[in-house]
Amino acid sequence: MPEAKPIKITETILRDAHQSLIATRMPTELMLPIIDKMDKVGYNSVECWGGATFDASLRFLKEDPWDRLRKLRDGFKNTKLQMLFRGQNILGYRPYADDVVDSFVEKSIANGIDIIRIFDCFNDLRNLQEAVNATNKIKAREGRGHAQVALSYTLGDAYTMEYWIDMAKKIEEMGADSICIKDMAGLLVPYKASEMIREMKAVTKLPIQLHTHYTSGVAGMTYLKAVEAGVDVIDCAISPFAMGTSQPATEVMVETFKGTPYDTGYDQNLLAEIADYFRPYRDECLANGLLNPKVMGVDIKTLLYQVPGGMLSNMVSQLKEQNAEDKYYDVLKEIPKVRKDLGEPPLVTPSSQIVGTQAVFNVLMGERYKMATDQTKDVLRGKYGQTVKPMNQEVIDKVIPGEERITCRPADLLSNEMEKLESEMAEWKQQDEDVLSYALFPQVAVDFFKYRQAQQEKVDPAQADVKNGAYPV
């Protein structure tokens, strides 16, 4: 028997599990009563922030995401808290200047985040370096903060085993604390995972974490082979919000490794209590339609077409709007062609939406790139960074003829933004973190600030008699 090497687990119920199954709608007050039990499990970390939670909190739940983080930090006395961070895009959809990235990293750690998982939709490491540097500065100064660089896993000619090995070496060189293989579409199959972990472990001393989704049905087996190959941490979700487009179930993986060298040592009775707590909420989400049974099954098309589930549903709704559902298979055939034209990027937010929408346009127009979206143009201009393969020159000439393309790190062209942002939103500022909320989602943040003010003053601005300067109380 190999020597004991208990597998560590990151619990995703407070972030990716509900982002994947119920569009990130779990409110903070639902999380707080179970923290005490979750804190006793012994998780490697609890992923609870970043990704779409920031936007959804402000936009749909009318909550301050920073306040959520502080409350979670107060509750988790013994467990590390983890977030997902989109490199130079932070949690938004455009590249931000370095001073915004630095400030966001600093405030995330100050408010309670321990591990920052940083990824880029093109795996362009230049777009991750600033966030890694910012984390390392705080670690050197305060002894807190862990920079984990995530590689967006995908398939294609460019993504050979040599590519992944080379990336692992570069991540170690750039000063990261650990590596994550981020398999957002559930494309990593068991024996490939085994090979990948072994090859990476041969070239880097950094711990390796594996994140996948159950969408294609292979995730549990993939974890089994990865653990046997030496992976250090796996991402799981407590069972009521596991499987489907979420992660494998925590309790299942704990039971799988029980009595083996990889035994987690976690208490199944405690995990059962946590699952019991979330089960009524799952039933409520099923009853009110927030949880669609469609996202809970296996979608083998993911493996056939290498298209993430969210991208497929997005494409179907676009075709429905145009009364062109009969073009479904034409678009599926067009997606890999568009992806190739754009340098074969991994399909993850926002590249998946860009490629999918452009494929729909190409099919509906009857001529490829007769019409290109602004985002497609920006990809071709180099605004999102460097792709693994060169982009199709004919497409560049057709879509952005004669334009000069960006070859440097896109953020090098951006001037510092924090002062300007702060002056723009000064009337709403109640904490330094408000400037960062505004930086990422200006309109959504201002709407939230107005709502917050109304709650504090017990006044409804919508009911105000502005002419006479009177409010109903």
Features of this protein?
disordered C terminus, 8 strands, alpha/beta, 47% helix, eight-stranded parallel β-barrel, 473 residues
Report on the structure:
Helices cover 47% and strands 9% of the residues. The protein has 473 residues and is α/β, with parallel strands linked by helices. It has an eight-stranded parallel barrel with strand order 1-2-3-4-5-6-7-8, surrounded by five helices.
Quick overview of this protein structure:
This protein is α/β, with parallel strands linked by helices. It is built from 21 helices and 8 strands. The protein is globular and about 60 Å long.
- How would a crystallographer describe the biggest sheet? 8 strands, parallel, barrel
The percentage helix is: 40-55%
What portion of the residues fall into strands of 2 or more residues? Answer: 5-15%
Number of strands: 8
Total helices: the number is: 21
Structural class: alpha/beta
Radius of gyration: 23 Å
Reading side by side through the largest sheet, how are the strands ordered?
1-2-3-4-5-6-7-8
Could you list the spans in which at least 5 consecutive residues all have pLDDT below 50? 469-473
Question: Kindly state the mean pLDDT as a whole number?
Answer: 94
Succession of helices and strands? EHHHEHHEHEHEHEHEHEHHHHHHHHHHH
What is the CA-CA span between the terminal residues? 72 Å
Shape: globular
